[in-house]
Amino acid sequence: MAHKVALFVTCLVDLFRPTVGFATIKLLEDAGCDVVVPPAQTCCGQPAYNSGDREDTIAIAQQLIKTFEPYDYVVAPSGSCAAMIKKHYPGLFTDDEAWQARAQALSDKTFELVSFLSDVLKVENIDAKLDKNVTYHDSCSGLRELGISAQPRKLLASVEGLSLSEMKDSDVCCGFGGTFCVKYSDISNAIVSKKTDNIANSGADMLLAGDLGCLMNMAGKLKRQGSNIEVRHVAEVLADMTDGPAIAEAKK
User: What is the pTM of this model?
Assistant: First the structure.
């Protein structure tokens, strides 16, 4: 029987890059899942949480928990949003045993996309082609909170025609950090400048990552620098959906 999987679209995918959502659905369906996109879903509450607004974070979390409870799994094309649910939701309800149990149940069945494909569904080969030399950025939340590093590289290795050139410090922050890039824009710009130097020095034609916030931050900097490096979410490559425009594509 197919797993009933709810797609947590995430705010950035919904508002800025819906193709990542469609790519995610394709990958899950190709892996044999019955995919549902609950219309009542909202933000995971991470911006409020990071800004210290505990009251609104709890209200958002309760709504999300109720929305996703009926499904076998919840999958998000974002290590950041998946980590918010998986690592931080249970801690919001230390004074409410019933809600903490519900938050923990959601945490236990929530996964980032590539981790779900690789670790849960045991997908080893992807039916995709891409004649590009790519480099991969390890986003902070996915790497440090969810242990995502080998999984995307393993799946990318099965993409026909693709070669991977690791950049220096692929596991170092890109400077986005959600609200950090707004509060500390000068520091954020210094961090992303080092990152784009490493991206360019890798010799890759394309930059990939699993978090759209990081990708938009790096793509924006590359565009301002006049770079022609293509920037995409890893789901778009794995789903063989790279015909459309890249993220913040530079004018050629």
Answer: 0.94
In this prediction, residue 249 carries a pLDDT of 66
Query: Pairing between strand 34-36 and 4-7?
Result: parallel
- Specify the DSSP element, H or E, that contains 17: none
Separate counts of helices (H) and strands (E) for the chain: 14, 8
What pLDDT, on a 0 to 100 scale, did the predictor assign at position 77? Answer: 98
Mean pLDDT of 124-136: 97
Give the model confidence (pLDDT) of 189-228 as tens digits: 999 999 999 999 999 999 999 999 999 999 999 999 999 9
Residue 26: C-alpha distances to residues 31, 50, 122 (Å): 8, 32, 16
Going from the N-terminus, what domains does the chain have, and what CATH number goes with each?
Answer: 4-119 (no CATH), 123-238 (3.40.50.11810)
**Structure token digits, residue 226:** 């006049």
Q: How far apart are CA 92 and CA 64, in angstroms?
A: 13
Radius of gyration for the chain, computed over Cα atoms and rounded to the nearest angstrom: 18
134 DSSP β-pair partners: 164, 206
What token pair was written down for 30?
């190709």
Report which of 110, 26, 77 is spatially closest to residue 210, judged by C-alpha positions. 77
